[in-house]
Amino acid sequence: MAAELSAHHRRLAQQKREAITTAATELFLDRGYDGTSLARIAEAAGVSKSTLFKRFPTKAALFEAIVTESWQRDAGDAAARPQTGDLRSGLTTVGHRYADLVGQPGMTALFRIVIAELPRFPELGRMQFQLGKLPYFTSVQRYLESEHEAGNADVPDAASAANQFLGMIANYVLWPRMLLTDWNPAASDIHDAVEQAVQTMLARYTPTRRPDPKPER
């Protein structure tokens, strides 16, 4: 019984947390970061101010949580690097995970908030980069380094390669959404965009196999 109550309380706490971050994201978009108070967020989320302040004593702490949760959504899959050994398979896995991540509506909203508020609140941009973008980028860089070290890829500059790969995908999945409110590519088109990015990476970074030397006579 105690375990059931504990699980029930955890579910309620998670539901309240999600209600708060969802309400905050919507209000930041609608009213701006500066024009949104924690009290207004609590009202929109349907929680008491004491409940919100206990979890997020400042707007900066709340925004930090939004950034972290947005980039770590489905972290059980997205944060795990593929096993080294098959470059095509690994890149395909990474590419589709990234397309799913940046294609979610919440990610578009997050980027819009940061871009709109950046001149007045540069710390929001730093949070987005340091807590979200950079850790994810680094995980992809480390994967490419592992393939290079294993001899499965010729990637002398894994940072540049990771930037190229993620950039090809984001350029189709994310960035058009920033300017076009009706941009909503079909799942098949997103799949094709990822596959094309994988093919480009394979063409550039698959190691050239030298022929085995002929045995001496």
From TrEMBL:
Q: Where is the HTH tetR-type domain?
A: 14-74
Record carries keyword DNA damage: no
Q: Which residues form a coiled coil?
A: none
Residue intervals annotated as DNA-binding region are 37-56
- Give the record's keywords alphabetically: DNA-binding
The residue range of the signal peptide is none
InterPro entries for the chain: Homeodomain-like_sf, HTH-type_TetR-like_transc_reg, HTH_TetR, Tet_transcr_reg_TetR-rel_C_sf, TetR_C_Proteobacteria
- Indicate whether Secreted appears among the record's keywords: no
Under Pfam families, the record lists: TetR_C_7 (PF14246), TetR_N (PF00440)
Q: What is this protein called?
A: TetR/AcrR family transcriptional regulator
